[in-house]
Amino acid sequence: MEGNSKQIEDEEEEEEYVLLDLEAVYEQVNIPPNAPYVLSGLDTLNPVLVIGDNLKLIGTYEETIGTCLVFSEKDGGPVVHEETGPSDQNLFKGACIVDPNQTSAKQVKPVASLQKILKFRLPSEGDIHNPS
């Protein structure tokens, strides 16, 4: 019994990330930002996504080809240049200057790699008569 618990402790829990792709329904339905949703059946061939009270979408898994990476992006603030140099004419030595004509920098970092994409579509007549 003790050997089994040690074996379970040694196994690492593997996380799997899935991208939810709503492109096929994006122009057909209005999905408000921050709408409540329920995602069920992730371990089935056709998971179901219910958004709000009445929008039901059917999903189908698609394996990715190659490496699919997900990144997060946040503002890094304005680009700052520090004036340096040995010149006697450099009146702003050690000062930082912000260039108003330059857009703020973005910080991008990888979050996860994906093996699957879950593409959603509106239910068809066959889905209504034969629920999964």
TrEMBL record:
- By its UniProt entry, which Pfam families does this protein fall under? TFIIIC_sub6
Transcription factor TFIIIC triple barrel domain: which residues? 12-121
Family matches, as InterPro entries: GTF3C6-like, TFIIIC_triple_barrel
> A single GO CC term, please?
transcription factor TFIIIC complex
Q: Which GO terms describe its biological process?
A: transcription by RNA polymerase III
Question: What is this protein's record name?
Answer: Transcription factor TFIIIC triple barrel domain-containing protein
Organism this protein belongs to: Papaver atlanticum
